[in-house]
């Protein structure tokens, strides 16, 4: 049986704070604030999620009701918030969450489906946001991305999420003109990309650590390294459908450079199934790719295997788990 990380975060309500693995490990969300209870599925007004997220104070947001919140516009989340969906079934539709110029955000155990409109992402992280953890969410069928991380947003972890029914799944780094995106650092682990077409993820400029993810049945490619990006792919499972190429390289020219470049990918311990062609470029700049241990000392990882594949199909995305009690700890 595969062992997943975060076995201890569901014992006490606030045990999520500061527990992410990877680049988002410092995210504390609303640890030091009171509990805010969402009591209505209305888009706005008293007791709504939008009202809680707009408050300029730390809050640990929980839900006292299950159902669908139809967002008429992006819901902006201010700094030091935890949006904790444990204990209920909350689905967002219409639009998504926007993390703009904020820090210390935790988003846990929610579903996103059916976002419509130009530039509408499930979770849009830009600009200048940091210390973010997105955990155990289900995301599908938005008009743009499911999670997009751009414009100097950094120190982010995405874990135990389920992605499906989508085209351009995850963009990290805006475009070649946004050279400030060289600061971007993202960890993606124990996620299941189930038939999403491409961008699992696509990266420009940033550093991305992928480990113990399962990606299957893509239609264009699995992972793409664009201009100056560095992708460390470690003990992931790539299972092809009709399209066999796992790794793609796109050459683009940064705005402050005179030569176009692609990104770099290092594959270590990855499992390739059903005739996958990794198409990995070897011997070209591999020594320049970062190693995660330069930034964080430990992470929970096992060999890529059929056992891990089976577990990720069950244990990713929204889960029907109770909301933990808030237990007071002695100083």
TrEMBL record:
**Could you give the cofactor binding note from the entry?**
Binds 1 Ca(2+) ion. Required for its activity.
Recorded GO MF terms: metal ion binding; pectate lyase activity
Q: Which UniProt keywords apply?
A: Calcium, Lyase, Metal-binding, Signal
Task: Give EC number(s), comma-separated.
Answer: 4.2.2.2
A Pfam family: Pectate_lyase_4
Top EC class per UniProt? lyase
In terms of Gene3D superfamilies, this protein maps to: Single-stranded right-handed beta-helix, Pectin lyase-like
Recorded hits in InterPro entries, A to Z, give:
AmbAllergen, Pec_lyase, Pectin_lyas_fold, Pectin_lyase_fold/virulence, PEL
Matches recorded under SMART domains: Amb_all
Cofactor(s) required for function per UniProt: Ca(2+)
Limits of the Pectate lyase domain: 31-244
Which pathway does this chain act in? Answer: Glycan metabolism; pectin degradation; 2-dehydro-3-deoxy-D-gluconate from pectin: step 2/5
Write out the catalysed reaction: Eliminative cleavage of (1->4)-alpha-D-galacturonan to give oligosaccharides with 4-deoxy-alpha-D-galact-4-enuronosyl groups at their non-reducing ends
Is Glycoprotein among this UniProt entry's keywords? no
Annotated family: Belongs to the polysaccharide lyase 1 family.
Q: What is this protein called?
A: Pectate lyase
């Amino acid at each position: 049986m595969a062992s997943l990380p975060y076995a201890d975060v569901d014992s006490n309500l606030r045990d999520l704070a500061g527990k992410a693995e990877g680049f988002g490990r410092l995210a504390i969300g609303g640890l030091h604030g009171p509990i805010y209870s969402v009591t209505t599925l209305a888009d706005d007004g008293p007791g709504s999620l939008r009202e809680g997220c707009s408050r300029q104070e730390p809050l640990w947001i929980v839900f006292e009701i299950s159902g669908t919140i139809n967002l008429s516009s992006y819901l902006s989340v201010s700094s030091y918030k935890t949006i904790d969906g444990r204990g209920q079934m909350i689905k967002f539709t219409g639009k998504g969450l926007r993390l703009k110029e904020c820090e210390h955000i935790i988003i846990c155990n929610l579903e996103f489906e059916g976002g419509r409109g130009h530039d509408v992402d499930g979770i849009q992280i830009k600009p200048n946001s940091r210390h973010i953890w997105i955990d155990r969410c289900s995301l599908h069928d938005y008009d743009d991305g499911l999670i997009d991380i751009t414009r100097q947003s950094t120190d982010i972890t995405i874990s135990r999420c389920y992605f499906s029914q989508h085209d351009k799944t995850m963009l990290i780094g805006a475009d070649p003109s946004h050279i400030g995106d060289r600061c971007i650092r993202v960890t993606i682990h124990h996620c299941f990309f189930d038939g999403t077409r491409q961008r699992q993820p696509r990266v420009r400029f940033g550093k991305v650590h992928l480990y113990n993810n399962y990606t299957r049945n893509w239609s264009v490619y699995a992972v793409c390294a664009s201009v100056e990006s560095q992708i460390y792919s470690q003990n992931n499972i790539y299972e092809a459908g009709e399209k066999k190429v796992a790794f793609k390289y796109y050459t683009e020219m940064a705005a402050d450079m005179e030569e176009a470049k692609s990104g770099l990918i290092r594959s270590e311990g990855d499992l390739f199934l059903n005739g996958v062609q990794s198409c990995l470029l070897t011997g070209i700049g591999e020594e320049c790719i970062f190693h995660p241990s330069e930034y964080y000392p430990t992470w929970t990882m096992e060999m890529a295997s059929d056992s891990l594949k089976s577990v990720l199909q069950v244990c990713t995305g929204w889960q029907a788990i109770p909301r933990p009690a808030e237990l007071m700890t002695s100083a």
